[in-house]
Amino acid sequence: MTETLNVPASASTDPQPDPSGADAKPAKGRSLWTDAWQDLRRNPMFVISAVLIVLLLTMVAFPGWFTSASPTVGDLTHHYQGEPRYTHFFGEDWFGYDTQGRSVWARMVHGARASVLVGVLVTLSVTLVGGIVGLVAGYFGGWLDSVLSRITDIFQGIPFLLGAMVVLTTFTKSNLWVVIAALLFLGWTQIARVARGSVITVKQSDYVHAAKSLGASTVRIMFRHIVPNALAPVVVVATTALGGYIAAEATLSYLGIGLAAPAVSWGVDVSNGKDALRTAPHILISPAVMVSLTVLAFIMLGDAVRNALDPKSR
Amino acid sequence: MTLLEVRDLHVDFQTRDGVVKAVNGVNYSVEAGETLAVLGESGSGKSVTAQAVMGILDMPPGRIPKGEILFHGENMLTMSKEERRKIRGARIAMIFQDALSSLNPVLTVGYQLAEMFRVHQGLGRKEAKARSIELMERVKIPAAKARVNDYPHQFSGGMRQRIMIAMALALEPDLIIADEPTTALDVTVQAQVMALLADLQREYNMGLILITHDLGVVADVADKIAVMYAGRIVETAPVKELYRAPAHPYTKGLLESIPRLDRKGQELYAIQGLPPNMAKVPEGCAFHPRCPAARDICRTELPPLAEVDDARGSACHFWKETIDA
Amino acid sequence: MPERRENSEPILEVRDLAKHFPLTQGILFKRQIGAVKAVDGISFDLYPGETLGIVGESGCGKSTVAKLLMNLERPTSGTVRYKGEDITKLSGRALKAVRRNIQMVFQDPYTSLNPRMTVGDIVGEPFDIHPEVAPKGDRRRRVQELLDVVGLNPEYINRYPHQFSGGQRQRIGIARGLALRPEIIVADEPVSALDVSVQAQVVNLMEQLQDEFGLSYMFIAHDLSIVRHISDRVGVMYLGKIVEIGTETEIYEHPTHPYTQALLSAVPVPDPETEDGRERIVLEGDVPSPADPPSGCHFRTRCWKAQQRCAVEEPALALPENFADTLPEQPVHHPSACHFAAERTAVIPPSSR
């Protein structure tokens, strides 16, 4: 990937000073994170995914910059005749109209908000909750681990759709936050299990024993030695899950227990589009492509970050 | 006829950093009933050579650009895949360092032994099982009849290595290649396993190639030794002569750098530096950056394996001085 | 040197130290169904400036001893006194203070260094934890000094562990262990993962550092040759117990315990001519499980001398009865836990060179 790849060749001249100059970079203040950033900047996979995600986040924050059409107001004259006109960049009819004569492009732009918010917020909260549970259970072990692991098992045992239905139907009015809460409620166990296993593996490393025998505090051992080394599998699972949460939101919306009609989301649009799949496939395909692109961007990002945080892969 | 002869064998690996020449012109031979020890540190090419002989080298990234491997006078490198497969396991068998990962954990030991007979000799289930029990008794596993239905993890390390030996012996091969067979075992168990291997070799008059880094194990069982460094044989000699008067500075350094059980000794002699990176082997004699006797010629000219006497060779420009020192 | 112990107080006194790992069953409500007696009552002293070697086969409990001394495990019973203070009961600040004086070198140089920290961070971490040892501005210089002491280029401070070979990584681990200027270093198989030609470098470095800093070493290994080379005194462990302990000469040239004799006779000597004149004691069978050790003497199931008495009465680690009349100067005069302790010659023949 970069020219720092595989340095052992120059390390083999020890104990003489190393004349090969592999370390010619300025040496001041290098840490794991600055090194990771140096590596990321030069990684095309990171650049592409970062651009996509920044674009997406802009769309979420300022939908007005991308389209002037309203996603909710339909003009029934466009009903069913809205063939996409792919040459009209950013125009109202760029991706055609849906069954109710609303601009598909406008709905894609405005729908980003719900999908991205659900995906990102659920992933973050799930990682936080699951990560903490996993870290505590894995690090302290004993009865605490037994109790936390059994609770995790109980939650894992709840069938996803049934669980989501029960949670969502107990709230009379379902909005974005309720959907996020429901997904967090059912999703944190996956991360907790991965984090626990990862923490247990890392905890047994000799460098953790070494830190302990130096008298390092629990907090130091956890956050300096265990978390950075246990993070990789969690990051991978979380980024893959992110796509799943966006899809889950779509599923719930499709079943009528997630986001409902006045709300705009890619999930709502996919379920709307399925009725007209034969006659007007663009209504379904356009938001579906957005979902795929978003998922892909986050997976690429996660992969790049994971590689950058692992000095061995550099 | 010589049982196995390796002639001018070269092995390359294609890696991200370019071509790594792991083995560069290795020659050795083993007769029936003879034990050849191939001694070397990690990365010396000792295991890669054995894998090439056995035909289990991963190709790609591995490649054999040059060389011959003659088994009973036939070059195995030009044989068809089918012919080689028939030799592997049946006539040349291999024992690995890690017996636990070499055995399938979900099948009983008896099943895995019996499989050898069923696949290669077409024996029936019952007969194969009887032969397996017989074989387990051969390698001195106590209560073989009762333990034949146990799984690999139920055996201790030493017992597992015995099972590996039993599997290698199953088809009465002409040649056994043992890659660090006792490295993972405790000393007292090590001694048992080596004694067993030596006994069986005598009994079946097999050739044995013993790949190891342990100079002590070699001293006990080998007839002759080939010392490898950076993909080449740097010294070859009958075992006693090599220990009495090494003819290569690397061998000499190794012998002096290991502490001895039978004397206390002062500071250890330490070979300076590190084994070379195989992607960047030094020019001339690969050992010259670490050699206390290196001169100008060593930096530029690769020393050939010079004949010290009929049975010995040394790849050092100054072998005469080394042997006399 | 053996004479050191007469004229000084031990720096570390271990008494009846035991660690039993419970074997449990059940998921939420665990009940104990047995115990693995990894360390089962051992006692020894460590004197300032000496090296005490502990040898034994895998599963004999020697690594657990290291963890107990380092307070990485709490013992089931027994005491470890450092300068008279029992460190097994300490916690918090008092424990942290003691830790400055006892440090560890680990076996596997590939897992003992945090792969996500630079060499500078690894060797400097002791100063972060004990800021009183080095002022903040001085740390970088101190780290570079330490790297220099262990024979590494101080400019490597910003490299990551994976950029080094095994031997170099072990040097980094030693530098970390030295940072707080400890008095005792517990080394658990410090060279067994290294290439033969590199082992000697690391052993020499450890000896040189011992002289330079007046360190006391607990050198735990399975390689009897290396232990003899580096140790002043040696203890032999079998199934959680020390079966024989004495000076290097006493153990290697005049062993009186059958297990020590078998162990020594099994070690191959890199010299075919010496090998030919040697007697081999090949032990039958494997080491029994420490969850279910034999009654009486733990070694009796593999011992050629075993008699009825061995199954009933556990031999104590003391000067054996039949050597009671020997003078302390005589090499057989040392503790050996065997009812039938006796010398046996030709276990290690005299060196041919």
TrEMBL record, chain A:
Key words of the record: Cell membrane, Membrane, Transmembrane, Transmembrane helix, Transport
InterPro entries tied to this protein: BP-dependent_transpt_permease, MetI-like, MetI-like_sf, OppC_N
Disordered: annotated segments: 1-28
Regions that span the bilayer: 46-66, 116-142, 230-248, 283-302
Every ABC transmembrane type-1 domain range: 112-302
GO cellular component terms given for this protein: plasma membrane
Ranges annotated as biased composition (Polar residues): 1-15
BP term (GO), one: transmembrane transport
Location in the cell: Cell membrane
Membrane topology: Multi-pass membrane protein
PANTHER family named in the record: ABC TRANSPORTER PERMEASE PROTEIN, OLIGOPEPTIDE TRANSPORT SYSTEM PERMEASE PROTEIN APPC
Family under the similarity heading: Belongs to the binding-protein-dependent transport system permease family.
Protein name: Peptide/nickel transport system permease protein/oligopeptide transport system permease protein
TrEMBL record, chain B:
Domain ABC transporter: 4-255
Predominant location category: membrane
Topology in membrane: Peripheral membrane protein
Gene Ontology process terms (BP): peptide transport
Pfam family, one: ABC_tran
UniProt GO molecular function: ATP binding; ATP hydrolysis activity
Highest taxon of source: Bacteria
Family, similarity comment: Belongs to the ABC transporter superfamily.
Protein name per the record: Methionine ABC transporter ATP-binding protein
Organism: Streptomyces qinglanensis
Taxonomic path: Bacteria, Bacillati, Actinomycetota, Actinomycetes, Kitasatosporales
UniProtKB/TrEMBL annotation, chain C:
GO MF entries: ATP binding; ATP hydrolysis activity
Keywords annotated in UniProt: ATP-binding, Nucleotide-binding, Transport
Family matches, as Pfam families: ABC_tran, oligo_HPY
SMART domains to which the protein is assigned, alphabetical: AAA
A biological process term (GO) from this entry: peptide transport
SUPFAM superfamilies for the chain: P-loop containing nucleoside triphosphate hydrolases
Domain ABC transporter: 12-264
Ligase as UniProt keyword: no
Protein family membership: Belongs to the ABC transporter superfamily.
The protein, known as: Oligopeptide transport system ATP-binding protein
Classification of source organism: Bacteria, Bacillati, Actinomycetota, Actinomycetes, Kitasatosporales
